[in-house]
Amino acid sequence: MTTDLLRRAGSALLALLTGVLVLVAFASPASARAAAAPDTNEIVSYWKDKKDRLFVESGSPLTSDQQSEIRDALSESKTRIYVAALADSSIADEAAAGNLINSLGQALEREGRGKFTVVVLDGTRIYSRSNLIGRNAATLADLAASAANGDIAAGMKDFINRVNLAADGNRRAALDPDSTVSSDSGGGGGFGVLVGILVLFLAGGVGLFLYSRKKQREREAREAAELAAVKQTVEEDITKLGEEITELDTEVKLAASQADTQADWQRALDAYERAKAELAAVKHVDQLRSVTEALEEGRYALACVRARVNNQPVPERRPPCFFNPQHGPSVRDVRWAPPGGAPRDVPACAADAQRVEQGFDPHIREVMVDGHRRPYYDAGPAYAPYAYGYYGGFGDVMTGMLVGTMLGSMIGGGFGFGGFGAGYSAGYAEGVQDAGGFGGGDFGGGDWSGGDWTSGGDFGGGDFGGDW
């Protein structure tokens, strides 16, 4: 009896071990396949050889009907948009998404594709990058995903239309959260939209007309409020510059080097007066860029005046202090990270650089947003022209220092294949996690990353034949 029980126990144990080995044998290749990175060459070769801008990997959640809808929208698009639909969780993390899109962009560049937009669908999650419409691609992906209500095809068609609107220069419509456009991606609205409006009107479209008017008034009111807020910020900057000019009046009159000092003094005065005059004429936030450009010039001229009256060398022409443009030109770069964000190099005035290096908070320029004070670089897209005027004349400075901020998604630099300004490329690379990836969202709903991985720039080249 004992021998029989031992024999049975041994058989059962052997069967159990065999089963475990079989499971390991089958599970390991599956895990390896799941962890394998998508093949860039396979994707680009498919786009090129099949003349089909939608690559669909086995295991992608796209149905055949959804694939057909997306292909139709891509074929009608006025701009080149290349889509790689992958199985869910094909991309390990945001960094892997960045590497994949960079590789696809480089490959398309080598094929002479000119300007284009790349989209990667990791299951229902969308990542996008564009050298055609700049960093707006991430925002458009967010908007399309939000409007899709779980329908990947509808979300992709909405994204394609928004890209075309942005490419046509209709940036406001492309970035309008309340705007969802039809599947006719070729015209950015066009005849199909007009017909739809007429049909709705004939079917009782008076209500729609009134609703549209209401939305337009709300949008105009929102834009007017944004303009008023940013204008107040700029007006404070102008007042501050005027006060500093006045404080130096006596020292300038007593300066030994009158000719050079007076020339810089006059430049500061002229820039101050120009900023005041241009601010009075501003009707839209985009026009504020020229005002802050004048303020940047005036502050540098004033820094030169201070140096001359104090018998010091004239300062180098550097971007304004990132923490507060009112501080005037920066003196050096300092390693800094926003709360919860990644470190990056930013230009800083001497006082703020010392504070940061000693472990203290810099004196950051804050503005009022919905009753709360926020740093200007996280105050919304209305402040993009404000920042651009101060920093736009210094190459790719903004690309690195604004990564992961709200303004970061609105201001483009290069496509990301090298060429950032010295001292700022490290901030860009290390700000990837802070930026939230390539922007976009999830067509399955929720889980937004925001993000700022798309960028502007120009690949050069053109269309060398074919339409793939």
From TrEMBL:
Signal peptide stretch: 1-34
Domain of life: Bacteria
Keyword annotations of the record: Membrane, Signal, Transmembrane, Transmembrane helix
Transmembrane segments: 189-211
Annotated protein name in UniProt: TLP18.3/Psb32/MOLO-1 phosphatase superfamily protein
